[in-house]
Amino acid sequence: MKPFDNLSLFVLLILFLSCSSNDNQPEKNEEEQAEISTEERLQAIVDAKVSDGLKGVSVSIRVNGQERWGLVGGFSSETETVTTNMKFGIASITKTVVAATILKLEEEELLSLDDTIGDWLTLESENIDEDITIFQLLNHLTGLKGYFQHPDIWTRVEGDLATAIPSEELVTYVGEPIFSAGERYEYSNSNYLILGLIIKAVSGQNVGEAMRTRFWGPLGLANTYFGTDEDVVGPMANPWRDSDGNGQIEDISADFKAAYHSVFFTAADVFTTSGDLSMWAYQLYEGNALTETSKSKMLDFLFIDTGTPIFDGYGLGVRRINLAGRETWGHTGGMRGYGSYMLYEPTSGVSIAMLNNQSRSENGPLLRFELVEELLAEVFTELN
Known about the structure:
The chain is of the alpha+beta class and about 375 residues long. The chain has helices at about 10-20, 25-35, 40-50, 95-105, 115-120, 135-140, 155-160, 190-205, 205-220, 260-270, 275-285, 290-300, 365-384, and strands spanning about 55-65, 65-75, 90, 225, 240, 250, 270, 300-305, 310-315, 320-325, 325-335, 340-345, 350-355, 360. Strand 11 (about 325-335) and strand 12 (about 340-345) form a beta hairpin.
């Protein structure tokens, strides 16, 4: 995969500025090229991906915690463009917050990562081994089948979009285990569903309160919400999805009600802006969200042989992802109507959040990947 194949707008801009009908004025062309700012180059990358098929995009890029570039492109609705204050679903990037909350509870000496499910919960499911440890849940070492794969769960959600499903009931949708706990790694949303129930049991709070009191309030992330427990305040980017598989995405914002929020729960239901999310990446991996001991545990990566050098490790709610020639830490996300990236590159102090409001679109995943890699490549070049 060549990261710059679809950078048509940027390439055309550079070609235009580097070519002239008057070959006797090379100095002028070089000056014109130099006048293109980094922000303009980054915006051109965003605009090219929107032109190629991304509905709407919001990006925030920070260096050592300071936002250097905030970029938007495309549309929220048919008539409203994306703005920097719009919230998007971050999907599985939620797992970074869940893992951090568990580690914070350990810092508070309220639990241990060696505790088992049975130490905190009594679950009515023969498919969940209550001897599975919290560490195994965090690291996807349990063999639990993902509850989104149950054949009845989406019928339940779509049969009554306005009614939330109690989080304790979601465990009934966990199917037969794929392998015995501790045998190997396999990503499963069921692990983080159970971690959410443990957070409630240990903290005595709902998950939204547990996150807000430990992170959103102290870190000043005023635009971040856990949708299962809190109303998402302020403008949201409309979610788009190819629901019927006809190759066209449709606005599904009318469907995104309590049932959707509840089913995503601690697997995927944090909503935020790109600015807050890039700051969360910085605070989580470099800042004060966790102690150095907790960060060390989180970033102790298990090697994952995925057959690609792009993703080759998983820690506690964090993926090791190699992009633009650098090792980054963070997570990706995809849910109904949204796709996202959140990454931190430790040698440069760069954190990036990219939020997109579409799913189940043929070219969406590739365009999101290309967008983030091309933006990072440009930023790293600028910083060097």
